[in-house]
Amino acid sequence: MSKPFSIGNIHSSNSGAGVDELQLMQKLFKNIPGVIFQFQLFDDSTFCFSYISNGVGLIFGISSEEVMADASILFAKIHPEDKSKLFLARNESINNLSNITVDLRFLLEDDLVKWININSTPERLQNCYLWNGYIREITAEKEKEFLVEKSERRYRDIVERSLNAFIIGKEGEVIDANPAAIEMFGYDSIEDIKQAKRQDIIDENDERYIALRRQRQSLGKVNGEITGIRRNGERFPCFLSSTQFADSEGKFLTMNFYIDLSQIAKAEEKLAKSQELLTQAEAIAHIGSSEIDYKTGKFFWSDEFYRIHGLEPNSCEPTPEMSESFLHPDEKYKIALFNDAPQKKLENLSFDSKIIRADGMEREVSSFWKLVYDIDGNPAKMYGVVQDITEKKQLETALKLSEEQFRGAFEYSAIGIAIADNTKKLRVVNDTLCNMLGFEREELLQLKFTQLTHPEDLKLDLRNLKDLEEGKRSFYKMEKRYFHKDGSTIWVLLIVSMIKNKEGKAHQFVAQIENITQRKEQETVLQKLNEELALRANELMDSNKELERFAYIVSHDLQEPLRMVTSFLQLIEKKYGHQLDDKAREYISYAVGGAKRMKDLILDMLEFSRVSSSIIKYEQVDLLKTVEEVKLNLLPHIQNDNATIIVGNLPKIKCIRSQMFQLMQNLIGNALKYKHRDREAIVEISSIEHDTEWEIKISDNGIGIDAKYFEKIFVIFQRLHTKSDYSGTGIGLAICKKIVDRHYGRIWVESELGKGSSFIFAIPKE
After folding, report:
1. DSSP readout, 505-520?
2. Contact (Cβ atoms closer than 8 angstroms) between residue 70 and residue 92
3. Record: fold of 616-764
């Protein structure tokens, strides 16, 4: 359940400056990609977004106003399988005041699934937990992860099943190998072969290998015969197909395929499989290879080269004109660079360029080319590799934009931000903090934060900082006082986190500082108001008790004179009845009847007062058993009128047992009392379960009620019929309403004159 709330209730003051800061923050976050939010979970389990930026519309198709009005519409879109993940993260955050970092799926229209990442920082306020956070869409990233995982599984499956030896090397170390390699080189397991060095499995002094290695450094991949070494020292001829590329750390990895040439027959089969594996490896790495033979004029493209250009492998014969046709119009000048390379005797050529694929999609690629010349200096061949770098370029652009946005968010943040070194001296501050403390930036940067802190708060602040340095916590939060330049004191909410250096030691501290001076003043005022309110509430409670006691005493004491009046009238009739005429006896009958009705009215008033004065004891009550007890009480009426009571499935509810019995008896009794004189009474009792409440209905086929009296009948002493037609005091339904109100429920009537009525009441489940 959510409740509306405004971000201004938390961090902004009622002053003009506070509103400006709030508006500035909202404008700042308005166009930031993703969603900036504040979420509150109150102690009564209600919740709301006190602020959420307009980015929520771009991701979820819901306006920020809608989400702030009703947070549940956003939570309803969480994938059912991910809801528990969010609740677990939230509970952990509450228990430890730790950040929430979680990836979730959201179900949108047309079964569209979007992945989002939530990252938020909690804080405990007076009556709630508050999370300040950021939501960003990571659907594309997740899809890439799934594709990478799929590719890696495919790669592993290919490698594991391959009949050829496959080894991945890094700086002369074996970091991975397949079963065929373990068998070929005579090792026992993958862990065993990982202990081997490059010189343990191949002859590094073999001139053929030295030449291949040199060639691989320039071309990226090579093929050729070398000498292998088994673990037992046996040397054997083998064929090496090796590709070299840089990993994310800039270190070179080599993918090496080995064929044991000591078994020529098997070597041919393995060579074919090796080529297939190499093709698969190129596909996994998204690197296409190409070869130009200047002697024959023929082009060669690998399968992945075709795919990078939006073509099916071998779907057409590659030509220079075809290669040029893929270049973006803005990149056509690079054709001359490519064509002039042989004339300029260049050995290497590399550049990035934009291409338009065969399917019309625009991509960015990075090309590396190696030219080989014959002994006469004429160009013989050109080898090249092409890699699609579109996503890399997009990430670089996004990173640059993110850095610019962060800088803007830092400088114009609505809260003060400072970075201090491990000597506690301020190194970086934003304008907000300068304005908050009344210093110029240059003045603040000459100070340590200890010089600004109130002495009474410094000890706790330094103890928290020490815990942070010792790794006992990831951040700390506290309320403290700072000195303004003019000598005054301001209250702030401080959140501090730590940046470590390469050695894992404390390097810098990042502080977020929010001015809460006005809030602290308001808390003081609010505390006084709460104390006064509690006093008034106690006085009101005492007053109510006195009123209830007065009503009970008055109602009880009024019965004694009525009994006396009735008794003496009956004695007069008994003793002097033979002397009285019919008119006198009729008057006595009227007086006795009036006294009896007055007694009934007093008894009903007692019942009405007991509803409020009775001790509240809620317990689980089976309504089915309650109705059966009511039927026993009303059995004479049921039998005399030949009435039918139909009882459906009724729930167990938490209520005050005695009052629920009285409520059911009053409603069923009324259904029997106001029966239609032309038909036997039928009363049906049923229930409907809703999400938060039970709805109980008592329907009859009696005389019915005119719609204009629907509200009037629940008012005390209101009667719709004369005493001669139907007895009663007009208090019964007022008692029913009072009982339902005391259970935080609702009661109403549905009726049609002459056809019957349905009295319905709804009681909350908890």
Report:
1. -EEEEEEEEEE-HHHH
2. no
3. Heat Shock Protein 90 (3.30.565)
